[in-house]
Amino acid sequence: MEARKSYGQFCGLARALDRVGDRWTLLIVRELLLGDRTFRELEDALSRISPSLLTKRLSELVDDGLVIRNDAPRRSKNVEYGLTDDGRGLEPVIIELIRWGSRWMLSGPADDRVDPRWAPLALRALLEGQPARRGRVHLDIDGVQVTVGSSAGRRQVTAGHHGRQDATIAAPLPVLLAVAADALRLQDSGAAISGDAAVARNLVTGGGGSQTGCGKLGAAHAKGAAMSELVEMFDRSTARFGDHVRAVADHQWSAPTPCEEWDVHALVNHLVGEQLWAPHLISGSTIDEVGDRYDGDLLGDDPVAAWDAAVDPSVAAFAQPGALERTVHLSYGDDACREYLLQMLTDAAVHGWDLARAIGIDATIDDDIARHLLAAWTERQAMLRGSGVFAEPVRVADDADATARLVALLGRRP
Known about the structure:
This protein is of the alpha+beta class and 414 residues long. 48% of the residues lie in helices and 11% in strands.
């Protein structure tokens, strides 16, 4: 057998490329990430590779400890190949390469092969890790099943259908990739949608914009990947607030809240208004320029839809690259956008507590968020007292949890 070529460099990248840098090698790994394959199945999936070259690449991968084969005769086309632990270690590399390479997919597939089995990896590259409200969507992609859900405010993509879905979408792979990249609106895609369309849009539609100039498909992940810790906390807090809004029973909209001047309807209306203002202020608008367009009732007949429509652009505006370094024009004067986000995070978390208490559900604030806000507002007590927005602090036990200490600092009785 011909000796393997080497870059001859004492470098991790060079050593990696010595093993997986040859043509077809990473595509073989991609196929095996989707499950064990026989030689014939690999031939079918990689239709342009010759049998001799496929044999060579598999032998090299086996020799390098990245692939294992079963005990069938060596030359049998029924031999099954699978990845070792070292081979599976390439999975995040494959995902990142799919994401990076998506910039060259904007023109569509043309005559290229489209295999719906690639959907889980492709959608993971474009969607996974991005901020999302709670929910679960089942995708049917020409017979291949994929689930997009959320965990800790982030999207998760898994092969197969899992759990009870809020919505179902059926569409070809190129269509769903365009939707996931925000290059095509879901409602304009021709996809068959059943169930909660708002949840479907939130979980399957990607984010646009790019710092790298790679176009929407290549950049769809950028918003989630670059999200600062503070924005991530805001996203999580607004997601929790949205869950509380969904839990309000019809008879509870007039119920009192710990904010004595507001009932449940007024409190939710206030938070919706804050989210609607945010994109304008972050983009540089002044209070006068926005004017009174968000005065009055913003909830209409569907408070949940009103909240969902308002919150996604708000989170996206804060998540823009460089947004937190801007100056915003607030009612009390100019301030750093990062300080504005702290105030918005406080309102989402603490008014979420107010809403939960009003409707009788668990009001606990995520511990890391409560601790962060407690430290921030302890440092800003002079500003807190001078604002007139919060009541005087309430005394709590020394061993009270972070949620109790935070709401007490802001004038509420835990």
